[in-house]
From TrEMBL, chain B:
Protein name: Multiple sugar transport system permease protein
InterPro entries, alphabetized: ABC_transporter_permease, MetI-like, MetI-like_sf
UniProt xrefs under Gene3D superfamilies: MetI-like
Cellular localisation: Cell membrane
Pfam families reported for this sequence: BPD_transp_1
Protein origin, superkingdom: Bacteria
Membrane protein topology class: Multi-pass membrane protein
Domain ABC transmembrane type-1, chain residue ranges per copy: 75-293
CDD domains, alphabetized: TM_PBP2
GO BP annotations, alphabetical order: transmembrane transport
Length: 284, 329
């Protein structure tokens, strides 16, 4: 029985709670508003008043200044990031589901030790072995290539862990048995029966895998020295250079260009993303 | 038993389907880790040098790194920045969790707030770093504009020359990007608590604050620990924001261990060996932390399972004994 609270204290609480939430909302959105508005304003306008909520008329000028530069190329960065993120997400999702399937559906001797290893390395970030990784990649001439940014995703312990948790209650063994009786091979069972059943979990993990890969700076930064291979975060880092020291509007526009795809994706998928975070889908 | 049909053993498919993972893991994770560990004992340095010998004193790099003033500063900074961001982050996340899961005081627009609070987390950290660099710019930047036109300050403040201010901005960015994430994880933890407990508390006349501290917090202990450890591991690897915001400056105020390692290995004299030694030190710290988490997460299920196995064994024993008795009888 919910007690109807109409004490004056409740109103006070509500006012404080809403005020605080609105403050945090402003804090979250304000930097992006400034970024969007200033991307349309001229350097002079920004110099006289850096905060404004009225867009200027300088979007075109800012754009042409930005495009004049030979280094900062958001479209190339977009293309490269897309290749890396799509490739690594596909590897991550497909092979993690496959590994989870091996862990859930079959009874093999090393199953438990294998899962223990996966649990043990769950938290260890790739960054701590990056020097060895770089030296190794240099030796086999894989620097300035997308492969070392894509292929390691085949072994993603976090995704395997998540997929396993999802698969245990949702994959009835009877279906596998009946498929076997119908003469389906194990590989076909995985591709045609298990993968479609795992779609919701795969979608959630795909979003996070994609975003993580898209946003990652450290690995591309050490592996890619050729500007033709720069991913989006590397392109962003060029905006800090001297070429744009006084071109405030262009820097904001450049930043905006790099986040537009993510912002659009976020507003389309926010429901799933929030639900995915709630499932512990990402590492902090 | 489940995987056997008509006497065919399917166990080989377990191995078969794990092959891609195992191969990729060996090549891209295990080998580089061992390689990094080995490089830490060698004289490997110089641009793209892959020729190296082991040092006479194998631990020399480690010694030099531990004595290195910049490494100490960076380790101190990393821990300090993490603590300074984590305390307000967990406090505010808990506060919001309490509000958003409150039964007596329903807050409207929860969905909207969640989406907005989480948003900074999904934006490319590189972009965030440079955006904040622009926001706090001197002499003309939005923050300085607000400070001067609101009359809080007479003239612009040069944030990037102040060690404290620069560090606080990095702390703020970390907080700003992660509190929404932490909040959502905590809320999902709270929603996992049985509503019966809350109902019982309400009947007993507990108020909101009592319910929160006596019921909510103890019930999300595991989630809290998970948040703590994952955040700490993430914090120890902090790279994008300090690296792009001020390159670790001013005067090493925002130099984190990851930026230090990057600088050692990929700029100046390309000290791969020292960078490797520093990496391995971080590896040890992180491995220890993840060991703690592993222990906590494993705990419950494992204990439960062990108990069940024990019980099953006992029962089997009893049954077999019974069987023997029966047979004798």
């Amino acid at each position: 029985m919910a007690v109807v609270n109409k004490k004056p204290g409740t109103y006070g609480f509500k006012i404080i709670a809403y005020a605080f939430c609105i403050l945090l909302t402003v804090l979250s959105i304000f930097p992006f508003i400034i970024m969007i508005v200033n991307s349309t304003r001229s350097t002079g306008e920004i110099q006289s008043h850096a905060v404004s909520f009225i867009p200027g008329l300088n979007l075109k000028t800012n754009w042409s200044i930005l495009m004049k530069s030979k280094t900062f190329d958001p479209f190339l960065g977009f293309r490269n990031s897309l290749i890396v993120s799509v490739g690594s997400t596909a590897c991550n999702i497909y092979f993690s589901t496959m590994t989870a399937f091996a862990l859930v559906a079959y009874d093999w001797k090393l199953r438990k030790p294998f899962f223990t290893v996966i649990m043990a390395v769950l938290m260890i970030p790739a960054q701590v072995s990056s020097i060895g990784f770089y030296t190794f990649m240099y030796k086999i001439h894989w620097t300035n290539s997308f492969l070392p940014l894509i292929l390691p995703a085949i072994a993603a312990p976090t995704t395997v862990f998540f997929m396993r948790q999802y698969m245990i209650p949702s994959l009835p063994m009877e279906i596998l048995q009946s498929a076997r009786i119908d003469g389906a091979g194990e590989f076909r069972i995985f591709n045609q029966i298990v993968l479609p059943m795992m779609k919701p979990a795969m979608a959630t993990q795909a979003i996070f895998s994609f975003v993580t890969s898209w946003n990652q700076l450290f690995m591309p930064q050490i592996l890619n020295t050729d500007m033709k291979m720069y991913t989006m975060p590397q392109m962003v880092s060029l905006l800090n250079g001297d070429a744009y020291k006084t071109e405030y509007g262009s820097v904001y526009l450049g930043l905006l260009l790099t986040v537009i795809p993510i912002l659009i994706a976020y507003f389309l998928l926010s429901k799933y993303i929030i639900a995915g975070v709630a499932l512990g889908g990402v590492k902090g | 038993m489940k995987t056997k049909l008509k006497g065919i053993s399917y166990s080989k498919y377990g191995y078969l389907f794990s092959i891609p993972f195992v191969v990729a893991f060996l090549i891209f994770t295990l080998y580089p880790t061992i390689y990094t560990a080995i490089l830490g004992f060698t004289n490997c340095r110089g641009v793209n040098n892959t020729e190296f010998q082991f040092l006479e004193h194998p631990l020399e790099n480690y010694k030099l790194i531990l004595q290195n003033d910049s490494f100490r500063v960076s380790l101190k900074n990393t821990v300090m920045i993490w603590i300074m961001n984590f305390i307000p982050q967990i406090t505010i996340a808990l506060l919001l969790t309490a509000w958003f899961t409150s039964h007596s005081n329903e807050i409207k627009g929860k969905g909207f707030f969640k989406v907005v609070f989480y948003m900074p987390n999904i934006i490319t950290a590189a972009t965030v770093a440079i955006l904040f660099h622009s926001l706090f710019n001197y002499p003309i930047g939005p923050v300085n504009d607000i400070l001067t036109s609101s009359g809080l300050r007479d003239e612009s403040y040069y944030f990037f020359t102040s060690k404290t201010a620069s560090r606080l901005i990095v702390v703020f960015i970390q907080f700003w990007t992660w509190y929404g994430n932490t909040m959502i994880v905590l809320i999902s933890g709270v929603l996992g608590i049985s509503p019966d407990i809350y109902e019982a508390a309400e009947i007993d006349g507990a108020n909101g604050v009592q319910t929160f501290f006596r019921i909510t917090i103890p019930n999300i202990k595991t989630v809290l620990l998970y948040t703590l450890v994952t955040s700490l591991v993430g914090g120890l690897n902090m790279f994008d924001i300090p690296f792009l915001f001020l390159k670790g400056g001013p005067d090493r105020a925002t130099l984190t261990t990851s930026v230090f390692i990057y600088n050692q290995a990929f700029s100046g004299s390309y000290l791969y060996n020292r960078a490797s030694a520093a990496s391995m030190l971080m590896w040890i710290i992180i491995a220890a932390l993840s060991g703690v988490l592993f222990f906590i997460m494993r705990d419950k299920e494992q204990i439960q399972m062990d108990k069940e196995i024990k019980r099953a064994k006992k029962e089997a024993k009893r049954a077999s004994k019974g069987g023997v008795n029966q047979w004798q009888w």
